[in-house]
Design a protein that fits this description.
The protein is an alpha+beta fold. The protein has helices at about 10-20, 25-30, 35-45, 50-55, 205-225, and strands spanning about 80-85, 90-100, 105-120, 120-125, 130-140, 145, 150-155, 160-165, 170-175, 180-185, 185-190, 195-205, 245, 250-255, 260-265, 270-285, 295-310, 315-320.
Length: about 325
């Protein structure tokens, strides 16, 4: 004869129910739809992604990436409070909970339905609508970003959106900080199961990027000014003189160009649009018409344009001048 084995927890609950005359009470609370939802929310709150994902009816869109369905991405959910439990005509029940996260308070409603019984007494439940949302994230100008401090890459080489599965509710801070780039953090708060929330992270040059490029460009121009010719080699400086040059040309930089850095179509590559600066040229010239000698002593404008690549080590910049196009 086979002996029935009853887990200690179930036995304890049955004893409690018998003592209070309340299997019904357990069905309505601990084993009710709100109790099922609370089990899920408490898993999310304690950062137990595996526990939350393991509950019945928690499904993930196969088209969405799962990078952030992990414990580290779940931060800051507290103060769970049941608000309502509303049965529907289709056999489902909508359970609404209030919650608190670092970015503010919220409400989320979860649709569940019965899925059999446990030990022929207590009902089982499952989510009729999966408590997973889609974060439709666009990361502009670089692949790299962080979400709740987790390093990630979009995996695309252009500002194309990528879909990520995230648990509901959630509080996801999306940011970027690197040697030469920065972004204003955005916060995504998915609070509705099976919803899609769109966010965009705009990554821009940091002051350190502009300072580094400006320093290198200024040094290049200063070196150009040391060449004692009308058209310094590999430089944007130059001035045509129709008469005969009879002294050594000397250059100096009057105004260094004020550079802007803009993104290019290819991630990791940036550009400095055409920008003007001013140099000063001094040289004696002899007129081919009457032989008189005069001094050309005047300012000469020049234009610079550069391509800038951030190398994979994130510290090296490759600055390529484009003077002839």
């Amino acid at each position: 004869m086979r002996r029935a084995v009853v887990p200690w927890l179930v036995a304890a609950l049955l004893a409690t129910a018998a003592a209070t005359g309340g299997v019904w009470a357990l069905n309505a609370t601990t084993f009710g739809p709100a109790g099922f939802v609370r089990v899920y929310l408490e898993a999310v709150a304690r950062g137990d992604a595996t526990g939350a994902l393991g509950l019945a009816g928690v499904t993930v869109d196969p088209a969405a990436r799962t990078d952030f369905l992990n414990d580290r991405a779940l931060v800051g959910l507290t103060d769970l409070r049941e608000v309502s439990e509303v049965p529907g005509d289709d056999g489902t029940t909508v359970v609404t909970f209030a919650w608190r996260a670092p970015s503010g308070d919220g409400l989320s409603s979860f649709t569940v339905r019965a899925a059999g019984t446990r030990f022929a007494i207590f009902p089982r439940w499952e989510f009729a609508i999966s408590p997973v949302a889609t974060l439709h994230l666009t990361v502009e100008h670089d692949q790299r970003f962080t979400i709740n401090g987790i390093d990630a890459t979009s995996g695309v080489d252009a500002a194309d959106p990528v879909d990520y599965a995230v648990l509901v509710p959630g509080d996801y801070t999306i940011d970027h900080t690197s040697t030469y780039l920065q972004a204003e953090a955005v916060v995504a708060i998915p609070d509705r199961p099976s919803s899609t929330i769109a966010e965009s992270l705009d990554i821009e040059p940091s002051p350190a990027f502009a300072s580094r490029v400006m320093k290198e460009v200024d040094a290049t121009l200063t070196t150009c000014a040391t060449q004692l010719v009308l058209f310094p080699t590999g430089c944007p400086l130059g001035h045509s003189i129709a008469d005969r040059v009879v002294s050594t040309p000397t250059w100096s930089i009057v105004d260094y160009p004020n550079l802007d850095i803009v993104a290019s179509a290819t991630f990791g590559q940036w550009s400095v649009p055409p920008t003007t600066g001013t140099a000063h040229l001094t040289v004696d010239v002899k007129s081919l018409f009457d032989g008189t000698v005069t001094t050309f002593d005047d300012d000469v404008e020049f234009t610079v344009r550069f391509g800038v690549t951030i190398e994979p080590d994130d510290t090296t910049l490759r600055i390529v001048p484009h003077y002839d196009d």
